[in-house]
Specification:
By secondary structure, this protein is α/β, with parallel strands linked by helices. Helix content is about 35%, strand content about 15%.
């Protein structure tokens, strides 16, 4: 296990993609701009704003955001499925609208293209199309933790060989555990030298733990969402991950004093309440009812509430 103290880990916020997969959640363009501004205030370095199934719609928002973007604002990114008739059109559409995008190639044999050889060939074909275009393409591998380990390594090596600067490993169904995540990411870290990111889902309540395991295995970045908002049971929570890194002296650059405000804003705009028992931002996170805690509350708290500029009494 690596000692990551002092290292920097990039947190890429994907609330404006994953959050819109939550039933009943709709963010208008003005609301998206408000969330982007709050993310910028929290010094989140990168935000994903284009979903692979909604490239045209999200490209319209990307164009609006680009007109208002300052040099200090977060880097914008998006996703495009590498397999599909509209793949090349989506690539051309996003050029100049986002700083970078990731091509998604699902590694599960249950998703097209079905054969491993065909997956690699299609990825190579699309990367070849991108070579002459001004963008920073990455590759994302959904269902990566369900693929044969040898095939996952082969796919990552091939992506690196073709000049891809970043690879994202998806725990697509949230079924992984920290031991598996550490094992896979540790091996990949030894096999490729490009940036490695990890994308966690929370179906079994392990998204934060899995994300931390990936960090300890040496990844360069993590996908997170405000309040863990995301598909099904959600994603790794920005607030939980940022605080976990901070108390271990791993640098994310996030202004933790903005986390409560950011959480409250997304709670309001999404209509999805933050549970009182939610770690970090839940209303009970620093509540002490037991008489034995009174006067020595800090002995029962994982971190100082001052880290997130929070009044324990609120």
């Amino acid at each position: 296990m690596l000692d990551r103290k002092g290292d920097r880990v990039i947190l890429r916020d994907v609330t404006l993609r994953e959050g819109l997969d939550v039933p009943g959640v709709e963010f208008s363009f003005p609301q998206r701009l408000e969330i982007v501004a709050a993310l910028a205030a929290a010094v989140v370095p990168e935000i994903e704003i284009v979903a692979p199934g909604k490239v045209e719609e999200d490209a319209e928002f990307a164009a609006m955001l680009r007109e208002q973007t300052n040099s200090g604002d977060p880097i914008t990114s998006g996703l495009i499925y590498a397999f599909g008739s509209d793949c090349f059109r989506g690539i051309d559409l996003l050029i100049g609208l986002v700083a970078r995008y990731d091509l998604l190639m699902p590694l599960s044999p249950g998703r097209e293209p079905f054969r491993e050889e065909d997956k690699l060939n299609r990825m190579a074909e699309v990367l070849g199309y991108i070579e002459a275009r001004p963008a920073l393409p990455g590759v994302g591998f959904p269902h990566a933790l369900h693929a044969r380990r040898e095939f996952l390594i082969e796919a990552c090596r091939e992506a690196e060989r073709r000049g891809v600067p970043r690879i994202t490993i998806f725990d697509t169904d949230g079924s992984a555990d920290p031991f598996l995540v550490f094992s896979v990411m540790d091996e990949l870290r030894q096999e490729v030298s490009v940036e490695l990111f990890f994308h966690a889902h929370n179906d079994l309540g392990l998204a934060t733990a899995n994300s931390l395991a990936a960090v300890m295995a040496g990844v360069d970045g993590l996908d997170v969402t405000v309040n863990g908002l995301g598909d099904r049971a959600g994603n790794a929570s920005l607030e939980q991950v940022a605080v976990n890194l901070a108390i271990r002296e791993i640098v994310s650059g996030i202004d933790s004093r903005q986390l409560v405000r950011l959480s409250s804003l997304v709670e309001e705009l999404s209509g999805i309440p933050v549970h009182p028992l939610a770690p970090v931002t839940g209303s009970f996170a620093f509540a002490h009812k037991s008489p034995g805690h009174i006067g020595i509350t800090s002995l029962f708290e994982a971190f100082d509430p001052d880290l997130i500029d929070r009044d324990p009494e609120s």
